[in-house]
Design a protein that fits this description.
This protein is an alpha+beta fold. Helices cover 19% and strands 26% of the residues. The chain is built from one helix and seven strands; from the N terminus they run H-E-E-E-E-E-E-E.
């Protein structure tokens, strides 16, 4: 079959656009991770020193793990005690359910609000998304990983972007003595989320 010249121009344009999108996105994730590392140096209770941050490890940016989820608000969810790895618990309330598709399979995750942070002028709109997946123990921290979201991230069409490239380890991955929430069973994904932070390559303090 003989294609007209415009067909190849379109294909070339699409390839250039895809490369530009991927490189722009990779740069965005690189900036995000640099800020993430710098955060450890400004927090007074940080488990890591500047030298330790060299042992933080991440998957290569993968834009396919930036997914758009539908959001369903759960208005009547009662407060509950979310256990932590220290043996203590923290009071949370389910805020909503996020549903997304990956490789033609549907998954759902719950997002939560901390009852303590809801009273804070700075963090009142903070949403907490803890999860586990099939990479835990082998490639990522066995205790699961976290994502930070905000109520303002919910679009007018009741969608929200979940960027798994920005998921991070709880501080318990680096040191004992922190109250890191355990991801509830309903947030255990039956898929390998090969994105975001991997196992810490340094020594646990």
């Amino acid at each position: 079959m003989k294609y007209p010249p415009v067909f190849f121009v379109i294909l070339f344009s699409q390839a250039v656009f895809a490369q530009t999108t991927d490189s722009t996105y990779a740069a965005e994730i690189a900036r995000h991770r640099q800020t993430y590392k710098e955060h450890f140096l400004t927090e007074t209770r940080s488990p890591l020193t500047e030298a330790d941050t060299a042992f933080l490890d991440f998957y290569s940016p993968d834009i396919s793990w930036r997914v758009t989820a539908t959001f369903e608000r759960t208005l009547t969810a009662p407060p509950f005690e979310m256990p932590t790895y220290s043996g203590r618990s923290a009071r949370y309330q389910q805020y909503g359910i996020l549903t997304f598709e990956k490789n033609e399979k549907k998954y759902s995750l719950r997002v939560y609000q901390s009852l303590r942070l809801m009273t804070s002028q700075k963090y009142f709109d903070y949403l907490f998304l803890p999860f586990k997946d099939l990479t835990n123990d082998d490639f990522t921290y066995g205790g699961g990983r976290y994502l930070d979201l905000k109520t303002g991230d919910i679009g007018p069409d009741n969608t929200m972007v979940i960027d798994f490239n920005k998921c991070y380890n709880p501080w318990c991955a680096y040191s004992d003595g922190f109250n890191c929430p355990i991801p509830p069973a309903e947030n255990h994904l039956d898929v390998k989320v090969e994105a975001g932070e991997q196992n810490f390559k340094g020594e646990k303090h």
